[in-house]
Design a protein that fits this description.
Peptidase_M48, 5 strands, elongated, mainly alpha, 2 domains
């Protein structure tokens, strides 16, 4: 019962932490560390929620979650072969076992389904780009689509592609274009699509839950800010801010499914951050935040194997 209680408290703490983090502004000062914290909260919440139900259900075996599942499987096999009886169970423990295994299956299935849909959308878009996109000597390594609207996005994958429209080339000054392309390359190199995938899957599964929607929005904004920070190494922050404003006023074309665009939501928050950057979080605090995130991520798996 101790393991179940601790896992329940951990799940509640992660949910409360995520709720508080959606309205916090300090993550804007260290987006990469904040993204790691978000990932840690999400993984720990899922494992702790499932683990709490399984720990309660398997408590009669006195072997924890992992070894308890193994003991339960052995008992079920023996019972099916007529060599033994299952551990005696009451209705609440049976319900907790079914609920825990169901939730685990749903979380894994939704994540895999979201990944499969994303990969299929990217595959279709790559085929489309092979038909309509062209190379331009003025922007080497970038695919250009002859479209009058403003569009710039990254299509992530093993062979990531950065795509811009002809309208973008005519809209932006050369240094602004350099800033936008650096932003998209940052998305590709840091695989921000993988960061967003679990939160997109959770939003797909629980669209009615406000904290889930806010969490996805917060992580999406942090991803864009992280890419902005990477782009600032190669261009002036004001030029990137100007490019974002041009995209906003020109009515930028949304990025296709499975891609990450330069525009996105909350553009003004990013512009204000670029023009008037606040002080970054102290290095000691960022290191402490990373250490806390790692320890938090390890807590639920360790409790799963704790024999009690």
């Amino acid at each position: 019962m101790i393991t179940a209680a601790v896992l329940t408290a951990l799940a509640v703490a992660c949910a409360v932490g995520a709720w508080r983090l959606t309205s916090a502004r300090w993550p804007w000062r260290a987006p990469r560390a904040a993204i790691l914290l978000w990932q840690s909260l999400g993984v720990t919440w899922g494992l702790a929620t499932v683990g709490a139900m399984l720990a309660y259900a398997l408590e009669p075996y006195g072997a924890g979650v992992v070894y308890g599942l193994h003991a339960f499987a052995d008992s079920a096999i023996s019972f099916g072969m007529g060599f033994g009886l299952l551990q005696p169970y009451d209705l609440p423990r049976v319900a907790a076992l079914v609920a825990g295994l169901t939730l685990l299956a749903v979380l894994v299935t939704v994540l895999l389904a979201a990944g499969a849909l994303t990969l299929r959308a990217r595959r279709r878009h790559r085929v489309l780009l092979s038909l309509i996109a062209r190379d331009d000597p003025g922007v080497p390594g970038v695919r250009v689509v002859d479209h009058p609207g403003a569009a710039a996005y990254c299509l992530p994958g093993l062979r990531s592609e950065v795509v811009v429209s002809a309208g973008t080339l005519s809209l932006l000054h050369p240094d602004e274009l350099t800033a936008v392309l650096a932003h998209e390359v940052a998305h590709a190199r840091e695989r921000h699509d993988l960061v967003l995938l679990p939160f997109s899957a959770l939003t797909w599964m629980l669209p009615w839950l406000r904290v889930v929607r806010d969490a996805h929005s917060s992580v999406a904004l942090l991803v864009e800010m992280a890419a902005d920070d990477r782009a600032r190494r190669y261009c002036s922050p004001r030029r990137l801010a100007t490019a974002l404003l041009r995209f906003g006023t020109a009515g930028a074309v949304p990025a296709p499914n499975g891609a990450l665009g330069a525009g996105g939501e909350q553009v003004m928050a990013r512009v204000n951050r670029l023009i008037k950057p606040g002080a970054t979080l102290p290095r000691r605090f960022r290191y402490s935040l990373v250490t806390f995130s790692v320890l938090l991520s390890a807590s639920a798996p360790l409790l799963w194997i704790y024999p009690g």
